[in-house]
Amino acid sequence: KSRGLGDLYKRQAHWYLATAVSRLTTPSRSARSSPEGEQPLAADTERSTEEEHVNQSKCRVCREPAIIDLPRHNANFCAEHLLQLCRRQVEKAIADHDMLSIDDRILVAVSGGKDSLAVWDILVELGYRADGLYLGLGIGDYSDVSGEYTRAFADERGLTLHTVDLRDEYGYDVPTAAKVTKRVPCSACGLSKRHLFDKAASDGGYDVVVTGHNLDDEAAVLFGNALRWDIDYLARQHPVLPARDGFPKKVKPLMRLTEREMAAWCIVRGIDYQVDECPMALGNKHLAYKEALNSIERTSPGSKSAFYLEFVDKMSPILAEHRDHERSRLVACTSCGAPTTEPDSGDAPVCAFCRLHDRVGGHEPVPVEMVLNKRARKAYLAAQESGE
Ligand code: Q46
Ligand code: ZN
Ligand code: ZN
Asked: In terms of pTM, does the model score above 0.85?
């Protein structure tokens, strides 16, 4: 089904969790379609030696066999209490940072990956009114498969999903934009995503945009920003950006939960998601920062969450003034009306999205492999060929 490039580490972690969970939950597949979905634990009869060390450990809460060990909590959890922990961490993030109120109309930015599907699932389960928005980025099979997972998730649960396709509606896709602008794909991709989520939220009358950024994502971004002491980016790195000057409010309810916990949430809840990494991500710095932090975390559990959560508690208030100053210089784009910075030249302000769209809209599509570096292209083509 999935033909993307894939990330060996991620696949192994996914497989390991999936195996441990499926052996300890029952019924496995039939419960998967249930949106209620908390699955009872069952006695595990035939365990492989690889699972043995997790399965021998007991849940901290109920002493039943555990499905996951969480060294940063110095504890193991069964499926039911893992879900409880995830829900509580989301509720804490929402309460601590005044992210959402129960009356809000919420738009979730969904990619088909575990984090965005999990956050949508958690919010709906907690009683929030949340619709989804999927952007078709045109990144080959990766986008096709991601879209399929997203649509299946929404259909199975009767949730409202909006879709915007870059190629159909704006005449370009991410690989083409990267080729024409001669910049890394993530630059055009991130810019398009931010603009189109803001636009969809304001067009659709939504109060807030939710993204699935998790603790690993935020810690990796913080690590990169701190390596350069990039004050503008550090100031903007906050789990809540309030609505202002035409920007919707944006929040990150998964700020206290890791990638691994989100993968486990999806597996226990029966959510099928895109396991492959975006082919454009191979070799990017973000992944290298994640690996660096994971290696610190292995020798010193809890470091990653302390690094990020203490930043939010202690440094973010200090940087708030800088953040406010940045936002106060915004004016309306003369082409689309979105907020943008005022040009020093005295020219009419045109936002970065409109400039990108003017430049790349209408170009012939460029295949994914054309914008990968040599190593990434080789791996991508090999994965395509093997039908992976
Ligand atoms: S989708 Fe887009 Fe990511 Fe792929 S091109 Fe980069 S930014 S890596 S989240
Ligand atoms: Zn338990
Ligand atoms: Zn514009």
From this structure: yes
Amino acid sitting at position 68: I
Say what angle helices 114-125 and 79-96 make with each other, to 10 degrees: 80
Is 184 touching ligand 1 by the criterion CB < 6 Å? no
How do residues 9-29 score in pLDDT, each as one tens digit?
455 556 566 666 655 543 333
Determine the Cα–Cα distance for residues 211 and 344; give it in Å rounded to an integer: 32
Ligand 1 binding pocket includes 220 (Cβ within 6 Å): no
AA identity, residue 321: E
Q: Measured between alpha carbons, how far is 73 from 383 in angstroms, rounded to an integer?
A: 37
381 lines ligand 1 (CB under 6 A): no
Residues at Cβ < 5 Å from ligand 2 ion: 59, 61-62, 78, 81
State how far the Cα of 176 lies from the Cα of 363, in Å rounded to an integer: 7
Euclidean distance between the first and the last CA atom of the chain, given in angstroms as a whole number: 8
pLDDT in tens, 198-233: 999 999 999 999 999 999 999 999 999 999 999 999
Take atom 7 of ligand 1 and give the residue whose Cα is closest: 186
CA atoms within 13 A on the CB side of 338: 22
Cβ neighbourhood burial of 129 (10 Å; 0-12, 13-18, 19+): middle
Lowest-pLDDT range of 31-40, 44-53, 304-313: 31-40
pLDDT at 4: 37
| Contact residues for 376 (Cβ-Cβ < 8 A; gap 6+) | 5, 279, 282, 283
Q: Is 371 in the pocket of ligand 1 (CB under 6 A)?
A: no
